[in-house]
Amino acid sequence: MSDLIIRPARSDEYDAVARVWMNSWVSTGIEHASNFLLANLRARVLREVENGWSLFVADDRGVLAAMLALHLPERYLDQLFVAPEHQGKNLGRALLAFTRQQLPDEIWLRCVRENEKAWRWYEREGFVFEREEVNPMTGFMMKRYRWKKEGTVR
Description:
Elements: E1 4-8, H1 14-26, H2 35-50, E2 54-60, E3 63-71, E4 76-82, H3 91-102, E5 106-112, H4 116-124, E6 128-134, E7 141-148
Parallel strand pairs: 4-5
Antiparallel strand pairs: 1-2, 2-3, 3-4, 5-7, 6-7
Helix pairs in contact: 1-2
């Protein structure tokens, strides 16, 4: 991981970003890989970037190892997905540290309730559960979390 660079995604990488997103999502066991899912994620990447996503990738010597999508004005960590072959190497922690550089005072996120591995990880990383809510785009029940830098009042 020493050669890993977190950088803004290029538009010519959006298909690869969607593939990393799908493969990571599928590794949770919540959904199965399909051409339909991949096409939806490809379309969503483009749509979300047009609507304000700050999209980053973890580049491991030319291979996309992860994707990170932030809505900076809302202090929202929208997506953080690590390709299965790069999981377990502290890449998620590096992406979260990068996120805290971009959003140093406060971050909120939503995590699918059935993705226990992810939401337990966020809890270990200092995020506090706020409530459950339905994601209107996907229909999944989400757990909403927030992290605030110590001493931050809002």
